[in-house]
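User: Here's a protein and a ligand (iron/sulfur cluster). What would the complex look like?
Assistant: Let me lay out the input and then the predicted complex.
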Amino acid sequence: MEPKEIVAALRAEAAALGIARLGVARAAARDRDRLDAWLAAGRHGAMAYMAREPAVRADPGRLLPGARAVISVAVHHDPGEAAPPPPTVARIARYARSDDYHRLLHRLLRRLVDRLDGLAPGHRQRICVDTAPLLERAHAVAAGIGWIGKHTCLVHPHAGSYFLLGEIVTTAPLPANTPMADHCGTCRRCLDACPTGALVAPHELDARRCISYWTIEHRGDLPAEAKGSLHGWVFGCDLCQEVCPFNRFAPTGHPDLAPRPGLERPELAALAAATAQSFKGQFRGTPVVRAGKQQMGRNFLAAAPAAVKKYGGG
Ligand code: SF4
Ligand code: SF4
């Protein structure tokens, strides 16, 4: 089978699996300079894992010797509500309101690898879903999945940015797609909407000032500047994506990533009063468990307005 026919067959398989987009990039080193500059400025904060193996992170050829192509896929999660909730609601990033996406993405990519094994026997593949150090956005851009918006997330002109990425690095010589042009233009809504100044310039995120980093990655006590600045977010933050005009018509999510009942608009007071048992019952199997009950308790109390803190015992 011709390489371009293989990609067409993979794309058809992906569509049947509910994968919104599939693109192919040449397996080349990408964005190493940008990564090095970000790390050198300390903008990764305490995410030490980001500084590990930068050469591997930038170059899929180091992840899988002999790699010829990177297949990127995008799977939509739920686009959530358009209107902001009242201040008594705990805001959870849209991608985290459902079952953990890692298992789904891994299962979908496994199906694509099985298909590829049949179409191009004798090649090797490696699946990446946050499990291997790879600068996935850089490869997704090269694969034509979207462009990196000024808020640093990947954006597609017809599908916005509410999607998750996964990759297959392969030794099969598949033809690359054309990278997509940047459509941000003069827009700066995401920069203006960020309440903490974490977007220090277009395409430049200082994680140390980001609500998402504070609520998910930061261990121990919250830094002083975070207290009173969570704007109701207890796990992640979507504010810079909510204002993006390309998310106005974001499609519905993959059916396996439907939000769990009670996680779209949970009451902060109820969460602040959660026991270890009720926390487990509510969040088991979601990305939120990554933060753990103690850290989430810290976030619930920090995000809660005074009246809620009193009610929740904080
Ligand atoms: S996720 Fe929130 S805090 Fe972080 S850059 Fe976007 S708007 Fe700012
Ligand atoms: S809000 Fe505007 S500047 Fe930001 S990513 Fe969307 S289009 Fe680009």
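Summary: Residues 189-248+259-312 form one domain.
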